[in-house]
Amino acid sequence: MQHELFNLLAARNGHFRYESGYHSDLWLDLDLLLLHPQTLRPYVSELATKLARHNPDAICGPLVGGAIIANQLAAEMNLEFYYTERFVRPQREGLYPAEYRLPKGLRQPIHGKNVAIVDDVISAGSAVR
Length: 129
Fold this sequence. Notes:
Layout: H1 2-8, E1 10-17, E2 23-29, H2 37-52, E3 58-62, H3 65-77, E4 80-88, E5 98-101, H4 104-110, E6 115-117
Parallel strand pairs: 3-4, 3-6
Antiparallel strand pairs: 1-2, 4-5
């Protein structure tokens, strides 16, 4: 199943600087993957099965591609869905210049819950930090 999922991704080779500040020779264009949610359904179901043993109360993802996957997963598992927003400090350079934060209105409802953090792809982990 992993091989089939990789075939859905539009991969490019070259030199790329990720949001984390790390560099790579591989870029995955995930926007095209999200065009057809029904195509992702079997992968989301498989992830839900694997994640269920950890008994999450909620699913959270960054408000980019990860939130779309997180929302689908929360619906599949009948759990609460949370998201984080991207925030970049103007003077911050180096590794991990971007942060992802829960909106103020979601901080109280999520408090004390066992939360699974989900993203569409995790390489250096800047969005899930």
